[in-house]
Amino acid sequence: MSASATRPENGPSVQLHDVGMSFGHKQVLSDIDLEISPGHFVALVGPSGAGKSTLLRLLNGSHLPTAGRVSVLGSEPATCSRRELQQLRTRIGFVFQQFGLVGRLSAMENVLMGALGSLRMPRYGVSTYPRDLRVRAAENLERVGLLEERFQRCDTLSGGQQQRVAIARTLMQDAEIVLADEPVASLDPSASLSVLETLRRLSAEDGFTVVCSLHQVDLALRISDRIVAVRDGAIVLDRATSQTDETELRSIYSDRAAA
Amino acid sequence: MSVSTPVRPAPVTSEAREPRPPRAAVATWLIPLGYVAVALFGTWWIAIDLAALRDGASDISRLLARMVPVTFGLVPALLGLVLETLWIALAGTGIAALVSLPLAAAASRDFTGPKPVQWLARGLIVVTRAVPSLVFAIVFVRIFGLGPFAGALAIAFHSVGMIAKMMTDVFEELTPAPRESIDAVGSSRLQSFVATTLSRAMPSVSSLVLYRLDINIRASAVLGLVGAGGIGVALQTAIGSLNYHLAAGIIVVIAVLLLALELISFLSQRAVAEHAHDGTVAELYRRTPDPTRPGWNRGRALRTGSAVVFAGALLFALTQVRFDPGRLSRSWQSTLDLLAGFVPPVIDPAVVTGIFESLVMALTATTVGVVAGLVIAVLSSPHLIRFAPLSALLRILVVLIRSVPDVIYALVFVAALGLGPFAGFLALSISCTALAAKFFTDSLENVDPAPLRALEATGASRLQVFVSGVWPRFVPSLIGNSLFTSDLALRESAVLGIVGAGGVGFVLQESVATLDYGTTAGVLICLVVVVVALEAVARWARKKVI
């Protein structure tokens, strides 16, 4: 484990020990052990229904594990109060497949929403946010290449642009870790690659950790430092990206019966 | 309406059996049958027969003759009351909209706070929705005294239920993704609600509040009958002093006011439809040299401008109805007295008979209205008869009839025919006919024309096209709208007793006047139960038919 932390945190960003998760009788994850160091870009691959989304949601406390221990940025969501969980979440960015933007509001306002965790009162409209946050929002939009589109309605932007707005929103949080759940599944191949490259560049510049679920093996190989493959709720492969290849990863998707 | 429950559960072998015919068939004949049965009973209870109708017609025409020529009395005073009517509606709607927001948020499925808060919110919505504004007005006049303040509060209380119910539906239709993603940034519940739910619901919420304002102006026009301000005060005075010329003049003023309102809402709906795509212009703010400053463009000016105008109008309306929090707190004692008097509620035979009579009046009038409305709708839609002047004439007639609130019909009929449910039944029948005619005409016109053309092409006659092409697709709307009509009719028939036209309204008004608050509570409880039960039946039937 390298300790190349650009952040004050010295321990691992994420630590899962013997984690299991079930919804009712349905066992979704079992015996998950995982440790992710700060600043790494980890791709989570595996067929749909393997438990990737559930794993990501365990990391921001949307789900609580039914077995084992989950620790993120030094806290355990399971033992947090509502207030503490809120605090923890301001440090964790989350990027969704469906972007999660308010379509009828401007790109700027959607980005500003990322800072709500640092504000006390509710906000309605761009001009209700303090000026320093607006300066940062404009900077972050520039970093994802959308400064010109700042006052456009989000639902008039392309899919790739909308996902960049969502990424700029996580930048407002100064997140130490960004969780991305199939962020490019709704995008065409060229937009997919450029969105992932943006995320990779920002992670390198700001030093935040990324855990990104993907179902495109080729993209995972191009973009990540490390690949974790999940199938049927268990980790079946976990190694540096340079030490695996497309053939090996493809095999995880085929011969399902062998498991 | 009788719903038979099976004595024994059916054996669970359905898979092996023949597929059952669609259940819709049962409801489509059960519901009309129920209506007809109640209507037959109603004719006996209210003592409706041909002789009564003939005598009634001549009594009414004699009264109408006594109303000519119409006079308007002091015109400035009358205009003042018209304005007061508008302020009552505006103040009531505004208060209701503001109170509805948190209530709807708490009642919505997505609410994550304590469950008891959610139950309380849902309960409040159901109860305030079920109680008509005139009923609230009777109670509030007792607490706050005569005048528009009680009226505005009455409008507000009833509208809270209506607006919050519709807002809840709007909130629940929104996709959860934006809310989840803002929850994930560590925002508070309130922040996340405002940023993702309220911001997305805003267009629908504004249009449903405007729609309520329209309905509330209609309701405010008659609040004066119980002394709660507005133009109805003048009408009450004129009728009370048997000045029928003036009463007719005031009814004309009310009708003109409501017709103007109808026109405005028609024109504004058309304008909104024409400009529906303006809302999706890409640029929400003009860009300025400073990238962080949103500039002004037409859209932003319009949004901000209309918000400022509405807020200003609401504040002004509140001053006009003499709304002040001090008054609310001074009335604390009488509110407590009233609430203390509610316990224990008294449900005596008078209350039960009154509620029963209201229900019978409403359902009988609905049956009459549905049949008459159906005839009018068929004649004014182009399926069977294509004679434009007739259709135009019928449409104008329906609009004119609808421009007079049914309590006013009841008031006139009571003056002509004397006290009792017969006057109420006639008034309700007229308004149900107009309402049903409007609903049915709309849905007959919206029947998809393509299959009808195909039938015509096979050489079928107009009647054949109507029977096999139009009717089957019209039946769900016929049943749905009939149920909706009886829902509205029930609330109306509960208040007609205020002018002596039968039903529970009289018991209610008497109980408040004599400080017999236990009976008041009994009436309110029965009313809520019956309205909610009818709604449940309607929901069940709609699910079966549509």
Automatic annotation (TrEMBL), chain A:
It holds the Pfam family ABC_tran. PROSITE patterns: ABC_TRANSPORTER_1, ABC_TRANSPORTER_2. It comes from the Bacteria. Signal peptide: none annotated. Residues 14-257 form the ABC transporter domain. GO terms for molecular function: ATP binding. Keywords: ATP-binding, Cell membrane, Membrane, Nucleotide-binding, Translocase, Transport. PANTHER family: AMINO ACID IMPORT ATP-BINDING PROTEIN, PHOSPHONATES IMPORT ATP-BINDING PROTEIN PHNC. This is Phosphate-import ATP-binding protein PhnC. It comes from Nocardioides luteus.
